[in-house]
Amino acid sequence: MHNAIQILIAFASIAVLLCLMGIVRNRAKALGLRAEVQRKLVHIGTGLYALTLPWLFSDDWPVMLLLGITVVIMLFLRQPKRASSGLGATLHSVGRKSYGDLFFVLAVATVYLFAKDRAILYVLPLAILTLSDAAAALAGSAYGSRFFKVDDGEKSIEGSVAFFVTSFCLSMICLLLLSDTPRVNVVCLSVVIAGFGTLVEADSWRGLDNFFLPIGLVLFLERHLHTPPLTLLTIMSCFAAFVGAAQYSAPKLNLSDHTISVYSIAAFLLLTTLDFSHAVLPLLVLFAHVVCCRYNPCESDHPELDAVVSVAMLSVFWLVLGRYNGSFNIPLYGLTTLSLILFFVALTVNRGKGLHGTITGIMIGGIAIVCYLFFYLRSEDHANVISNSLQVIVVDLPVFLGAILAPMLLATMKAEWFRRSRVARGTLLAMLFPLYSYVSNIWV
């Protein structure tokens, strides 16, 4: 397809989006539609249109151009004057703080890059995000009578049931029509996908389900589309047992049921989409942050949940970069998570209450360094692990030392900088040296 035609389609798509929002806003006034209904109508319309992108464009760059312009428009409509009236009101008049519109666009771009020419990996996650999420919201707001608390409000049991049923049906249809998955696997996969999606939707906050849900599903499908049914049943059983054990342990860890549920989902996703050796350090990030919050609390609004967002964004970021240059740069991903762990360790030790906090922090840091050396820098034939690790460290010694020392020194000397927005600032600090190494290698 000619480039000029693709650009024309991209801008026409923007016009379609704005027209949809205008129609919804106009009819909402005439019919008295509630704010949540308006938001979900736009959500459904844009989601269904997004499903056509791989067939509308022959190249990737026009899709990224379209999504980039959409982000700019969404940011423009979030301005206070425009969010309360006009087109912006179709998205931002629901009375709660949400970034779901931005996360939705980011999710479409990420799923598009991961799926490539595999229709099932693109269609199913976005279909569930588009239709199941809308079904849950509309069923919950219309028929909800039994509610449970989440971080920024409450959701209904009825809405979660609607999400599960819709997701199960969509999974069955898409897997049967768009994949060669063995039929016995289809039922097992559909149950896992519907169950996982329901928990993500129920436990998400600030619209993050628009990002976590499709990304989690595309990664899970990519790895387990042809997994034997017995293994899928084992995964389902282990996940249920893990969630139950986590809920039992929540009071002992001084965590809410919602927080421990989010941690359980994150751990499940890491363990089922990454090799175990590569999932160790991201899991240690979550544990190190829980320990840090216990011995050195911060003033952030959602410190425990912020850590899950950080791990998810870091993982997706390095995976996307890996897809861009053809390989997932495991050592740099590991170094980023190691750096973040040592940042939390330094804060724990620096302001730890008593000897117990200091010893706990040092143990976590030591375990993280050993895991990095053993799991992330091993040679291809899995032999001479230590010598290969040391060789890699010597070659990139400035990057390695900077990544492990800079966060620890700043957390120790300038602890007051991290009283608020601790996770966000620590994550940016942890990214600094690994990203520098990545960019330097690309340019060289």
Report on this model:
There is one protein chain. A hairpin with a 2-residue loop joins β1 and β2. The model is unreliable at 379-391 (pLDDT under 50). The protein is 78% helix and 2% strand. It contains 20 helices and 2 strands. A two-stranded antiparallel sheet has the order 1-2. It is an all-alpha fold and 444 residues long. It is globular, with a radius of gyration of 23 Å. α14 runs antiparallel to α15 (303-325). It has helices spanning 3-31, 35-50, 53-56, 61-77, 80-83, 89-92, 100-115, 119-143, 157-178, 183-203, 209-224, 229-249, 257-273, 276-295, 303-325, 330-350, 355-376, 385-395, 397-413, 422-443, and strands spanning 147-150, 153-156. The chain has 3 domains: 1-95, no CATH class; 118-243, no CATH class; 274-444, no CATH class.
Notable features of this structure?
mainly alpha, 444 residues, 78% helix, globular, two-stranded antiparallel sheet
Strand residues, percent: under 5%
Fraction of residues in helices?
over 70%
The total number of structural domains is: 3
Q: Count of helical segments? A: 20
What's the Cα radius of gyration?
23 Å
| Global outline | globular
Strand order of the largest sheet: 1-2
Sheet/helix structural class: mainly alpha
